[in-house]
Specification:
The chain is of the alpha/beta class. It has a single domain (3-284), classed as Ribokinase (UDP-N-acetylmuramoyl-L-alanine:D-glutamate ligase, 3-Layer(aba) Sandwich). 34% of the residues lie in helices and 25% in strands. The chain has a 9-stranded mixed sheet, sandwiched between helices. Strands 3-2-6-7 form a 4-stranded mixed sheet. Helix 5 (170-173) links the parallel strand 9 and strand 10 (178-182). Helix 8 (233-244) runs antiparallel to helix 9 (249-263). The longest helix has 15 residues, at 249-263. The radius of gyration is 18 Å and the shape is globular. Bound molecules: adenosine-5'-diphosphate (ADP). The site of adenosine-5'-diphosphate has 19 residues, from helix 8 and helix 9. Adenosine-5'-diphosphate binds next to helix 8 and helix 9.
Length: 289
């Protein structure tokens, strides 16, 4: 079983649905509301745990009413939360408006995620003891860099999902062993990615491709599924990839694509992350075809 340290974000999404979004200064009646736990770090941690990994989450919640619920989402999934701290102020939140046309408007407040500025001695021990470090870009880049450097120095594979996409200093890219990007991110970051030993590009319904350190290529076709909601598919893919990376890129890609495809068959981000048994069953069915 792969030991995985996720150094990343955890949020509460506040999702409102409304026929027509309000103009500035206007109040309108909404139709629905839901609290949906998320954050790329948290989603990927849960996905890696469910795909068979042994995951420890290094991150922060605030001192508000969301903190306990966020902690519980991780612990219920079996993710280790001993490195999840509580800081003063709000937890990370995303205020989301979904209008009648299905269009989203999102305000992200980093909150506690933005305060992940230090790694403690215990955090560093967790990173050093892991097989894989997994990071995204919803916490300060300086913390990602510190985690990656510490991982590298201790023989832990450094996996980065550079999302939300942005340019990163060369010193960050120099520490990355494995990058996981979607097609848009891959295009935008092409120059930097050319120096990363292992690059996995997700291709939506078409699956994913892999480019290795000597330019070797692999492609994993998409798994045909009845798509309900693609939210969280990328995070599920990345988590499953981390959990199976030690088995080589071909096997890891098959697990990741299968988990990612299954995530599209249910509504929501974290709620749609498949369990180990579901992934195994789908892999067995694919093998039989
Ligand atoms: P993102 O959502 O981050 O842009 P993708 O759309 O590439 O990423 O999806 C990530 C992964 O989820 C894909 O590599 C694939 O495994 C799975 N996936 C996404 N959409 C579909 C789909 N329509 N059918 C099957 N699998 C899908």
């Amino acid at each position: 079983m792969a030991r995985i340290a996720v150094v990343g974000s955890i949020n509460m999404d506040l999702v409102t649905t409304v026929g027509r979004r309000p103009e500035p200064g206007e109040t309108v009646s909404g139709e629905g509301f839901a609290l949906v736990p998320g954050g790329k770090g948290s989603n990927q941690a849960i996905a890696a745990q469910r795909a068979g990994g042994d995951v420890e989450f290094v991150g922060a919640v605030g001192d508000d009413v969301f903190a306990a619920a966020l902690r519980e989402v991780l612990s219920k999934a079996g993710v280790g939360v001993s490195r999840l701290r509580a800081v003063d102020g709000p937890s990370g939140i995303a205020a989301i408006v979904v209008d009648g046309g299905g269009e989203n408007s999102i305000i992200v407040v980093a909150g506690a995620n933005g305060r992940m500025t230090e790694l403690t001695v215990a955090d560093r021990e967790t990173i050093a003891a892991a097989d894989v470090l997994m990071c995204q870009l919803e916490i300060p880049v300086a913390t990602v860099l510190a985690a990656a450097r510490h991982a590298r120095a201790n023989g832990t594979v450094v996996m980065l999902n550079p999302s939300p996409v942005r340019e990163l200093p060369a010193e960050v890219w120099a520490e990355i062993d494995v990058a996981v990007v979607n097609e848009g991110e891959g295009e935008q970051l092409a120059a930097a990615l050319s120096g990363v030993p292992h690059v996995i590009t997700t291709l939506g319904a078409a699956g994913a491709s892999y480019r290795g350190p000597r330019g070797e290529m692999l492609s994993q076709p998409g798994i045909p599924v009845r798509v309900v909601d693609t939210t969280g598919a990328g995070d599920t893919f990345t988590g499953a990839l981390a959990a199976h990376w030690h088995r080589g890129p071909r096997t890891a890609l098959a697990w990741a694509c299968t988990a990612g495809a299954l995530a599209t068959t249910k509504l929501g981000a974290s709620a749609s992350i498949p369990e180990l048994a579901e992934i195994r069953r789908a892999l067995a069915e694919a093998g039989a075809r």
